[in-house]
Design goal:
This protein is mostly beta strands and 113 residues long. It has 1 helix and 5 strands, in the order ββββαβ.
Length: 113
Amino acid sequence: DIHTRAGEVVSSDGIVEIGQTSQMYAVAEVYQSDINKVHPGQNVRIVSDSLPGELQGKVDRIGLQVRRQSVVNTDPSTNIDARVVEVHIRLDKISSQKVVHLTNLQVKAVISL
């Protein structure tokens, strides 16, 4: 993302964001009541309406903070104040290559228990 254009004052956001895309990750929000079932190394299937098929990955690390969910849901019956923990999922090499151009894509992750 470019934060500053020619002639603009540089803000605290900096000039530009550059990401390392050779290894892609997904960040899943897991309900606090389910987080004790999640462990590093578990297999994860990832799907999105924007992608054909599935992506594959493994739980890489689990956040240490419970917070309010940030993923927007269009279902009016969804609990928007749900308490969640971020789970970082490392995509395998083939899946990383498929989404190298899709940073910040909203996905659904299914963690194998």
